[in-house]
Design brief:
This protein is an alpha/beta fold. It has 7 helices and 11 strands. The strands form 2 sheets. A 7-stranded mixed beta sheet has the order 1-9-10-8-7-6-5. Helix 2 packs parallel to helix 3. The structure holds fe (ii) ion (FE2) (2 copies).
Amino acid sequence: MKHWPENFREDFAAKRLRSDNAMARLFALSDLHVSHAANRALLEGITPHTDDWLILGGDLGETPDHLRWVLDQMAPKFSRLLWVPGNHELWSMGEGAPRGQAKYELMVSICSERGVLTPEDPYELFPTPTPTSTVIAPLFLLYDYSFRPADVERERAIAWATEDGPMCADETYLYFEPHASRDAWCRARCDDAEARLSALPEDTRTVLVNHFPLRAEHAYLPLLPRFSIWCGTSRTEDWHLRFRARAVVFGHCHMRSTRWRDGVPFEEVSLGYPKQWNQTRTADSFLREIILGPRDREPDGTAIRR
Ligand SMILES: [Fe+2]
Ligand SMILES: [Fe+2]
């Protein structure tokens, strides 16, 4: 019996559509978790896509060296790299390790040294031949425990989740200083991103990139349903419409899929841990192409209602 939501497309329907990205193609991959040797071995096999852009959607690893390894692998193979942090990049382990905002800034600096775009950079226009201007918006929005049932109060959210599931390791390793809480850090990040996205010209479309899903329906882990509290914020439920998204790219749940909502493809682009990917597949087969073609139809031909 299948438990997927009705709009779940397990077969990456977007790949069947023709791209209009004649000048460059846009690819995405997240949750590389390169602390695992099998993942590193796979990623060494990515072939050059020297005209194309690659979105790295977070959880590349935990340490600065993990991030450097991925960027140095990918930089010669793509014309542009973009990175957003996952929760794993924000972990701090060991005495004296930078924590919270300081860890984030350290990881941003490693990207900036290599010319990799981060949530701290101005949003860049993606070079499409169509008249529509499309910017890629790397976001770092974190989570605020709001992906929970309405009758569970915020104060009880963690107790509720751990009654029937594991405690997320973020509670041990993801520090939030100098913010008052992870919720407060999330709120500050959303305030900033909301202001920047709202300032875009009305006719500019976006590709919204965030490690965490923007909608609660996509924080869907069939075996760990209560893990959703560590997966995003309800504040972003309608951002794909408010900010005119042509696609939304995320990871975190390790549930590779293309799911449609309001005519917008939501691309979950995780690789995941070695047991979660088919080791007979090539590295390139895990790169998800983000299709930016004009859209007035769902892949099955249904007219999009706005
Ligand atoms: Fe992950
Ligand atoms: Fe994650």
